[in-house]
Amino acid sequence: MNTMKQLGVGVISQSRLLWKVLLFLYLPIVLLFLAVGLLSRLLDDLTLSLLMRDIVTTGRLPFFTGLVPQLEGVLWSASLTVCVIGWVVLKRRGGDVARSKRFLLQLSVVTAILLLDDIFLFHGEIAPKHLHIGKNIVLSIYLLTIGVFVYSNRLVIFSSEYLILMLALGLFGASVLLDLLPLQMFSFHRFVLQLRVFLEDGLKFAGIATWLTYFARYTVQQIESTSRTHSH
């Protein structure tokens, strides 16, 4: 009985302290599902099943369909999480880490954009087919954004393990070049076209994994550095 009483007191006490956290957690979720329900009622071709069930279930496809893209989404999400947590930790500790904080904050934005593009197929489907924006234009904007990001943070990058970042960017660049090759215009053997897809997606996957590796190591190194500074 004492345990139950302590539990009840703890719940009440934590509710008073955490109500804002819980509000910011659940309010967007409620709004999301309200929007989903509203859209399913307003649009004839849009059902709740299409919006809420996974593609494998909806399309009655084999369970391994889209394995690599799903793993890519996991890696992108991990990269974003690492950068955001690193930025929050450095921000709370203070000290002379302004460049590192700016670097991680900007990187969080860039990673979030690439993550959303990959999940919702923005440059391949939404932009060209629904917004009438060419895929090459979207890719050029992404490349320009990454270029500006790298240049504006060049001092931070040069003081880090930049070889890993260079490998990530090189793998991304090679994947994009393969994607832009107009091989479908020529009568290549099916093996060549399949090889292009294999290499394009393989390079992209390796690039995302390398991207995660670089920023995970950078974040850990910065947190350890500030820990040593504060201990002294």
- First-last Cα distance: 47 Å
Instruction: Please count the helical segments.
Output: 10
Largest sheet: none
* Number of beta strands: 0
Helical percentage: over 70%
Output the radius of gyration. Answer: 23 Å
- Broad shape: globular
**What is the domain tally?**
2
Spans of 5+ residues with little confidence (pLDDT < 50)?
none
Topology pattern, helix = H, strand = E: HHHHHHHHHH
Helix and strand composition category: mainly alpha
Please report which band the strand proportion falls in: under 5%, 5-15%, 15-25%, 25-35%, 35-45% or over 45%.
under 5%
**Average pLDDT, all residues:** 84
3D architecture notes:
The chain is mainly alpha-helical and 232 residues long. The chain has two domains: 1-63, no CATH class; 66-231. 84% of the residues lie in helices and 0% in strands. The chain contains ten helices and no strands. The chain has helices at 2-42, 48-52, 55-59, 67-93, 98-120, 122-130, 135-152, 154-158, 162-180, 190-231. Helix 4 packs parallel to helix 10 (190-231). The radius of gyration is 23 Å and the shape is globular. The relative contact order is 0.09.
